[in-house]
Amino acid sequence: MTNKTIPIQPLRSANITEGKSRAPNRSMYYGMGYKETDFGKPMVGVANGHSTITPCNSGLQKLADAAIAGIEEAGGNAQVFGTPTISDGMAMGTEGMKYSLVSREVISDCIETCVQGQWMDGVVVVGGCDKNMPGGLMGMLRANVPAIYVYGGTILPGRYKDQDLNIVSVFEAVGQNAAGNMSDEDLKQIEQRAIPGTGSCGGMYTANTMSSSFEALGISLPYSSTMANPHDEKQNSAKESAKVLIEAIKKDIKPRDIVTKKAIENAVAVIMATGGSTNAVLHFLAIAHAAGVEWTIDDFERMRKKVPVICDLKPSGKYLAVDLHKAGGIPQVMKVLLKAGLLHGDCLTISGQTIEEVLKDVPDQPRADQDCIRPIDKALYKEGHLAILKGNLSPEGAVAKITGLKNPVMTGPAKCFDDEQSALAAILAGKITHGDVMILRYLGPKGGPGMPEMLAPTGALIGAGLGETVGLITDGRFSGGTWGMVVGHCAPEAAEGGTIALVQDGDSVTIDAKQLLLQLNVPEAELTKRKAAWKKPAPRYTRGVQAKFAFNASSASNGAVLDAY
Fold first, then answer.
1. Parallel, antiparallel, or unpaired: how do β-strands 486-491 and 397-401 relate?
2. Rounded distance between C-alpha atoms, residue 183 and residue 176, angstroms
3. Based on the domain organization, do 412 and 474 belong to the same domain?
4. Has residue 312 been placed in a domain?
5. Which one of 14-23, 25-34, 411-420 scores highest in mean pLDDT?
6. Which has the closest alpha carbon to 503: 398, 397, 392?
7. What is the per-residue DSSP string for 165-210?
8. Which end of the chain is least crowded, N or C, by CB within 10 Å?
9. Which class for 548: exposed (0-12), middle (13-18), buried (19 or more C-beta within 10 A)?
């Protein structure tokens, strides 16, 4: 399929600067320095996620500036507005982590509100930290005017004792230090050196997973998802993105033209091939909902069975996003998948080209002088890594990352925790031993609220040498940096009376990624008795965004969206 240029569409913004309302509407623009000739140009939003809250976003202003320059050079008017962010890495393990998923909804609301309220003709969304991506795309899909995503870029690795460092290095070092396997001085040095500058966390964690999937969708420019924030090519790409958007406005290419079911299959194929974050499951359920595309949690399992893992990337592999970029980036991954018949080449991209046209000049096979990207016949794993587990503990499904595990099957006694902090304290105090199955609950979309990530306890388990032998099940989420015998997004959640709420210390629990099973080995009659005695807990928040999120959030198996009425 080749996109044909169509007649230039009437500008939406022109409708509010003509007719009887022309004078007062134009007066407001004149107050910002507009000239009469500007009113024939497209009004293009720049949703700017810059902030000094986090290194993920503190390097975004130069990209927003580059996008503004690109819009103006291509004949548009740039209209800049802000979007918020929450740093998952900073908030991890605190009450603030409960605002992370909430921020996805706030960001999407900001973009929809400004683009629709100001009747913009298109929008460039610039974002960095994890929820910036799904929140940005959801807002773009709701507004459904021509739009492009500009990812802030990955961070460069830190360095200590000849080892590359990233944010996960710190969390795992805490566990090593608590277990007596690392000195206080080494922990201090890792903490101070892990984040050397601006950019998002460096492995195939949530931010880089989502940026890579956006490139696969065709809503971002080729190669842009693995560029490093400090490098000049990132600014150049931001400027080019804005120019491409102006052409998309002329052709009237909208986000819902791009984000189709086949495009989502392409994105999920790339997520599987690169060993991406478990959070991608939650976010693509929400993205599909915003796009009006029929997509369920079972579709991830369908994709997993046919797409191999061909990239050796952290957290369970060796390399960082900067290494993937040097090896050929996402276009090289996509070309390998396309040649294997695992990608839809006829999907439309924001440039007006199809995926096949975009990848035309990319080599069919990855370069032989690198091993970050593997050929299909030398895949790390024959099937994808994000498995959907079901059973009496998760009848709606739960998400497990099963790569890097020697034996993804275990049965052990439950140790139950109703919050993250007590679970972390138990790990650091040496109260968790080989063979235990930790249950962390009341941390789901409604129960948390906000479904916080569990990087602190999972990092501590890895650091203590328990990552392969201790299971962890939660109705909360995991960081993209998490790996190990862990299962998240357990649904229904504890706060809604899901089976996870009924588990008691000592109960036998089975995690079996081979049979896709998550089972509480307790007789049904006993579970019925426990359910009758269970009482729904009072809401943790009764006012503000947390209360609104808890009241409206759907199940994690439906993306934890707020508008599934």
1. antiparallel
2. 9
3. yes
4. yes
5. 411-420
6. 392
7. E-HHHHHHHHHHHHTTSS-HHHHHHHHHHS--SSSB-SSSSHHHHH
8. C
9. middle
Q: What letter would DSSP give residue 194?
A: S
Do 141 and 264 have their domain in common? yes
Q: What is the pLDDT of residue 130?
A: 96
pLDDT surpasses 80 at 152: yes
| Contact in structure between 146 and 398 (CB atoms under 8 Å) | no
Entry field: residues in the chain: 565
SS3 515: coil
What distance in Å separates the CA atoms of residue 258 and residue 254, rounded to the nearest whole number? 7
Domain count of the chain?
A: 2
Nearest residue to 478 (alpha-carbon basis) of 281, 202, 201, 187: 281
Q: Which of 103, 316, 479, 554 is catalytic?
A: 479
Tokens 């460096």 correspond to what residue? Answer: 202
Q: Region 54-60: what's the mean pLDDT?
A: 97
Judge whether 497 lies within some domain: yes
Residue 168 located in a structural domain: no
Read off φ and ψ for residue 5, nearest 5 degrees.
-65, 130
* 200 tagged catalytic: no
Based on the fold, state whether residues 291 and 404 are members of the same structural domain.
no
Residue 510 CA to residue 507 CA, distance in Å, equals: 10
Q: What confidence category does residue 67 fall into, taking pLDDT thresholds of 50, 70 and 90? A: very high
Task: Give the range of the structural domain holding residue 494, as residue numbers without chain letter.
Answer: 386-557
Residue 368 pLDDT > 70, yes or no? yes
Same domain, 278 and 399: no
